[in-house]
Amino acid sequence: MIKKTIKVLGIRLSLLLLVLVLVVVAVATGLMLGYGVLGGGQATRVFSGNLWQEVLQRLNP
C-alpha cells in the first residue's frame, strides 16, 4: 500500500516537473521568436537584463 502511494506520488511529481520545464521552454521560445522575428531584434538579447530595464522604463514614463 505504501509503496504504491509513493510510486503514484513520484509519478505525479515527475509529471509536474515535466510540465514546469515545458512551460519555461515554451515561454523562452515565445520570447525569442517574438523579439527576434516579429520585433526585428537579436533573439538572444531577450535574456539581457538591459533590455528588460528598457522595457520597464517605457512602461513607467
UniProtKB/TrEMBL annotation:
Alphabetical list of InterPro entries matching this protein: RNApol_su_b/EpuA
Respond yes or no to whether keyword tRNA-binding is given for this record: no
GO terms for cellular component:
DNA-directed RNA polymerase complex
Q: Which UniProt keywords apply?
A: DNA-directed RNA polymerase, Membrane, Nucleotidyltransferase, Transcription, Transferase, Transmembrane, Transmembrane helix
**Membrane-crossing residue ranges in chain numbering:** 12-38
Please provide an example of a Pfam family that matches this protein in its UniProt record. EpuA
**EC number(s) stated in the UniProt entry for this protein:** 2.7.7.6
User: Mind listing the GO molecular function terms for this protein?
Assistant: DNA-directed RNA polymerase activity
Taxonomic superkingdom: Bacteria
Q: Does the keyword Transferase apply?
A: yes
What is the protein name for this chain?
DNA-directed RNA polymerase subunit beta
Q: Which organism's genome codes for this protein?
A: Lactococcus muris
The organism's lineage is: Bacteria, Bacillati, Bacillota, Bacilli, Lactobacillales
